[in-house]
Amino acid sequence: MAGGWTRDGAVLDQIHDTVLDGVLNARAQMPVGEGASECVECGEDIPEARRRAMPGTTTCIHCQSGRDSRVVHSAINRRGSKDSQLR
């Protein structure tokens, strides 16, 4: 599919890059290393099942949900049109 002045396949390249950025961002935020038996934010015990499922975790599910809701995603303009840059 051609997009005017773009080469064929450029739209798919943009979609691929956006998905790849999201995956790399998610992987970068995953905990690594030794986990904790107690949450570093509230002090509650972290269930054994969570520690097995998420090695390296340092927060309970409730506190991690609060952290996840504060994640800000970048709004990189990959479209290249002036309309999308002005929004």
UniProtKB/TrEMBL annotation:
The GO biological-process annotations, alphabetized, read as: positive regulation of secondary metabolite biosynthetic process
Print the keywords alphabetically. Answer: Metal-binding, Zinc, Zinc-finger
| InterPro entries the UniProt entry points to | Znf_C4-type_bac, Znf_DskA_TraR
Q: Which residues form the Zinc finger DksA/TraR C4-type domain?
A: 37-67
Superkingdom of the source species? Bacteria
MF term (GO), any: zinc ion binding
Q: Give the matching Pfam families.
A: zf-dskA_traR
Q: Where are the zinc fingers (dksA C4-type)?
A: 39-63
- Keyword presence, Zinc-finger: yes
Q: What is this protein called?
A: DksA/TraR family C4-type zinc finger protein
